[in-house]
């Protein structure tokens, strides 16, 4: 019982404490709510005051802005009124100007109408005057025809003929003057270039003949070369194809033959036999074959030396061998290899002066006579044979063209070809470079004179300076001064097309007027 009553007392006390706590808390909450309501009323009052103040400020700002806009609008309206007034004044002024122009145009129209009437009257007068002039001109023409004895058409033809003659004379004089000026300049420049080339390449010349001389150590060797009953000399002549002349010339024998290769083989063989001392037919055949083989190797060395001397490289071995064969070929007594080397030098120097390709010029100059190295039993000119050979050995088209033009067989298409031809002519025309047979020399001069005399109006022709110049005397009654100029050109072209000659030929036409009368 004690325990149950204690528990009830505790429960009552707890309930009383909870109730007191709840009441106390409720009072605190109510107090806080009252404070919060009072604060909220204060905040609301402050907000209402601020809102009223802000409303008043905004209304004031709106009024100020409306006032500013109204002021701006008023100013714009006043400016627009001023511009409108100015525009109205300009329009009124333009209208006045247009009125003035309209009145001026009306006055000009009246003036033009008056002028057109005057012009119509003038045109009528002009037509009348033209008709009168035509009648007068016709009458004058008839009078002139009666006086001159020619019709209008005949007079026109005569006038045209006179104009044509005068124009031809003036054209001839102009052509002559231009050609003289061009020739003077060209000759001066060409002479300078050629002189420089000749001075820088002063080659020595020795005309070669058809015989070779072999020196003997003593006179007894002549008998050994002849052999018993002449068998040794016969063996030498048969194996070499060269004639041996053993005459009274002391200490020498002469080898005669037109083929320089055979003469050189014979000379080498005889010198070998003289050094060896054994001279009999079997030994002669052996030595001759050895000499031929030695000459082949010597020709290769000569070709290589010539190419190296002029600075030409990368030649085909076949070309080098044929180039060496030129050492034993002659043209009018001039050694062909020496001539080719000189042409290469001259062409290279002139090409350098003219700013052309000196490499092509030197190469073509060295190879320009390569066709002369081919054996004589093959048909074709030396140019045709040379072109075929160079093409076979892969030479360039530029070198082949420059090589094949040096005798004017092909038209020049490059400056190097012209320079090779000029170098060939310079080398051949050097004094002492070539010799010519008297009979062919005389025939060439006669042909030159007869060619000039074949033209109409030529009275006589004279070849001078070994065929370097021809002077032609024409009949003054048949050839005029203008025709003499064209006659010179025609004769020059015919000489170039029909004759072959080294260098150049000067053509001079002489026209002399002689008037003869007798006093009785």
Brief summary:
By secondary structure, the chain is mostly helical. Helix content is 70%, strand content 7%. The model has no long low-confidence stretch (mean pLDDT 80).
Q: Could you characterize what this model shows?
A:
The chain has 520 residues and is mainly α. Among the domains are: 211-429, K Homology domain, type 1 (Ribosomal Protein S8, Chain: A, domain 1, 2-Layer Sandwich); 438-511, Cation efflux protein, cytoplasmic domain (Alpha-Beta Plaits, 2-Layer Sandwich), CATH 3.30.70.1350. The chain is 70% helix and 7% strand. The protein has 14 helices and eight strands. It has helices at residues 2-148, 152-200, 220-226, 231-240, 260-276, 281-310, 317-325, 336-353, 358-367, 382-392, 397-404, 415-429, 438-453, 481-498; strands spanning 211-215, 243-245, 252-256, 330-331, 334-335, 458-464, 469-474, 506-511. Strands 1-3-2 form a three-stranded antiparallel sheet, covered by helices on one side. It has a three-stranded mixed sheet with strand order 6-7-8, covered by helices on one side. Strand 6 and strand 7 form a beta hairpin. Helix 5 crosses helix 6 (281-310). The longest helix has 147 residues, at 2-148. The radius of gyration is 62 Å and the shape is flat. The relative contact order is 0.04.
